[in-house]
Design a protein that fits this description.
Blueprint (H helix, E strand, L loop, with lengths): L17 H50 L16 E6 L3 E9 L2 E10 L11 E2 L7 E3 L3 E2 L9 H5 L2 E2 L6 E3 L16 E4 L4 E4 L6 E4 L2 E4 L6 E5 L3 E5 L3 E3 L3 E5 L3 E5 L8 E2 L12 E2 L15 E3 L11 E4 L2 E4 L3 E3 L2 E4 L3 E3 L3 E3 L6 E3 L22 E2 L3 E2 L2 H4 L20
Parallel strand pairs: 4-6, 4-25, 5-27, 7-11, 9-12, 10-13, 11-14, 12-15, 13-16, 14-17, 15-20, 17-22, 20-23, 21-24, 22-25, 23-26, 24-27
Antiparallel strand pairs: 1-2, 2-3, 3-28, 3-29, 8-9, 18-19
């Protein structure tokens, strides 16, 4: 026979008695107090774990820097007597195990970098000077050498003809320029969405011009890792470009060595009277293709592009032509100036995202200085996965001090 729990019955007439009301209020207050104490204890435990995690990150980063002679311990106020760090370094990676609390190990890994990446990638805007009409939000690097790609990296890169991201489109230039172009023209393989999750290459070479056709819908690129696209011609961005995922996209526009850059003041896509040759011009060609970038296209589209928002970084060896209001979210690096065409709006170097040149690799680019550890990432995400806290294995960790 099943025994039922006793039932407490309260007659409705008791509800108006002062004694009952006092007991009920005391009971409710007690339950609220118990709940508050429990919440404080839980929050205190989570806070302590977060403090332990941050302490482990700082100690591991200092140990990694110190292993490369960068003086990582110098930035820490005092070493913890209970903390222990073990550093294992190979040719490609450095592994750090940190114990801040007895029986609690955190394991981290960082790539070994050959040196510092170009400083321009750490700023929202980098050029010899800020041209008129350019609004810079974030850090600006007024004097900079143009970042250069390593020759061996270019030789090992994937060509656009062998990549699923691009296809040749011979007719596209005639839709915008009266005489077309004298280079091979490429477009993205899909008008509205290009996915890049499975492509292993981090450097792709486009031996010609790259076009994003005008339109109201942004072109969406899904990246699982950083990708650099070297365009040996011009980049024509006729619509907004949205990058989704953990990867970052960098466009490098530079000529093939035979073309000469000029400011196309009348926006007709070719050299004409009134245009200005830029420094280093050695030959005259009827059409440009020397690493210029167009934000918005002034002719042939039949529609106003509105605002162009570019989530990528732009390294422009030639001239930047502005034919619409534009916002560049990544680093903007200019080799020359900005030519504003009729109807163009403002140009904003927003610098929403940037690289950390001291501790991050930019694929394919020449590095300088001594070897150093890259940014640490956690190998023990399960022990660090806290409610309301991002998984550490997907989070870039803090840098305790810069490398040399």
């Amino acid at each position: 026979m099943t025994r039922l729990a006793p039932t407490v019955r309260v007659h409705w007439r008791w509800l108006g008695r002062p004694m009952f009301v006092a007991v009920a209020v005391a009971f409710v207050a007690g339950m609220v107090m118990v709940h508050d104490v429990a919440s404080v204890l839980v929050r205190g435990g989570l806070l302590q774990r977060r403090l332990d995690d941050q302490k482990a990150i700082l100690l591991a980063d200092a140990a990694a820097l110190d292993a490369f002679g960068s003086g990582g311990w110098d930035n820490l106020d005092a070493a913890d007597d209970d903390a222990m760090t073990v550093v294992e370094r190979s040719a490609s990676h450095v592994h750090v195990t940190t114990r801040c609390v007895a029986g609690s190990d955190r394991r981290f890994v960082a790539p070994v970098l050959t040196g510092r990446a170009p400083a321009a990638f750490g700023s929202a805007f980098a050029a010899a000077e800020v041209p008129e009409g350019v609004e810079v939000r974030g850090r600006s690097l007024p004097r900079v050498e143009m970042p250069s790609l390593a020759g061996e990296a270019i030789a090992a890169a994937v060509l656009a003809d062998n990549s699923p991201l691009f296809r040749r489109e011979p007719a596209i230039a005639l839709q915008h320029w009266q005489a077309g172009t004298d280079a091979v023209d490429y477009v993205w393989t899909n008008r509205f969405a290009v996915r890049h999750g499975d492509l292993i290459a981090d450097l792709v070479v486009v031996p010609g011009n790259l076009w994003f056709e005008p339109g109201a819908m942004p072109c969406e690129v899904v990246l699982a890792h950083d990708l650099v696209v070297l365009v040996q011609g011009n980049v024509y961005l006729g619509r907004s470009l949205r990058v989704v995922g953990s990867g970052r996209l960098v466009f490098v526009a530079r000529g093939d060595g035979d073309a000469s850059s000029f400011a196309d003041a009348d926006g007709n896509g070719r050299w004409s009277l009134g245009d200005t040759w830029r420094a280093g011009a050695t030959s005259i060609r009827p059409l440009e293709g020397a690493g210029c970038v167009w934000l918005g296209l002034p002719s042939g589209s039949g529609q106003s592009p509105g605002q162009i928002t570019c989530d990528a970084a732009l390294v422009v060896a030639g001239e930047l032509h502005l034919a619409a209001e534009a916002v560049v979210q990544g680093p903007l690096v200019l080799g020359h100036g900005v030519t504003r065409l009729a109807g163009a709006g403002s140009l904003v170097a927003a610098g929403v995202w940037r690289f950390e040149p001291e501790r991050e690799r930019v694929p394919g680019f020449v590095t300088r200085g001594v070897a150093r550890p890259g940014l640490l990432r956690s190998c023990s995400s399960e022990s660090l996965r806290l409610p309301g806290m991002p998984t550490m294995s997907n989070e870039t960790l803090v840098v305790s001090s810069p490398g040399r």
